[in-house]
Amino acid sequence: MTPNEPAAHDAVVLAGGGARRLGGADKPGVRVGGRALLDRVLGACAGARTTVVVADPRPTARPVRWAREDPPGAGPVAALEAGLRHTAADDVLVLSADLPFLGADTVRRLLSALRAGPAEGVLLTDADDRDQPLVAAYRTAALRRELAVLTAREGGLTGLPLRRLTAGLHLTRVPDPLASFDCDTWDDIAAARARIREHDHVLDEWISAVKDELGIDLDVDTGALLDLARDAAHGVARPAAPLTTFLVGYAAAQARGGPEAVAEAARKAAALALRWAREAEQEDAGQEKKAGRGEAEVRQADEPGGSGPDAG
Hints:
It is a single chain. This protein is α/β, with parallel strands linked by helices. 48% of the residues lie in helices and 13% in strands. It is built from 10 helices and 9 strands. The chain has helices at 37-44, 76-84, 104-116, 140-154, 162-166, 186-196, 199-214, 222-235, 240-254, 259-302; strands spanning 9-14, 31-32, 35-36, 51-54, 65-67, 91-96, 121-125, 131-139, 171-175. A hairpin with a 2-residue loop joins strand 2 (31-32) and strand 3.
């Protein structure tokens, strides 16, 4: 690791609960915004060196390592211990698989807060100021220490609540009602689905869903692309907008570039669209001027003593 490279971290995602309040439905596979809840969480922690999902294996949008607590269904503490066996980084994200609004920015905030101070864990609190230990970043060694203490004291980890584990940790809390929102009921699912379709969120949600579906891991300036589409639609023709943005993406892919290649291709296309629009405006102005001269000549010919064909 170079001095400018961020420290590595791992992630453990707990996805094997019984979902009793969903009637036993496959909660990690429930879709919000066209994406399974589990895939949404995996997208948020995509920067992890190793991501371990504690559950029975299933298709996922991103590659993961699978683990299972023994016995299956033994509870979150046992599941966390099973996942930690496959991690090696000093810091670890611990997440549930039902967080529709968790994003990479929140993950970075958790990790930054953990590394900036002496705390052994940083967790989010929800709208009711309750701790959410499954939306958190921890020092791996501290988790292993407390797991060993619990195992020795209780004779095992089966059925233990997470608060028994976190009670022995020095924690920092970060309020975040949105990122900590989890889907325990069908009403929660409905609320999440409604929110992502609101005007302020729908575009970002759609772009994220398309990137996941196509296997694209690329962050670009969507504002610049929207400006390009507007300029192409206004200055050329409405169908030019989607075709132009497609060609920009294709050009960036041909150049084997990242966000910079997309930005450069978009800049060139936007400049072309503006030149095209100016040319059309100049042509329209010329036609109007010519039409104005023609009208003036007609009026002159209609006047007494004018230079029309019957004059003189």
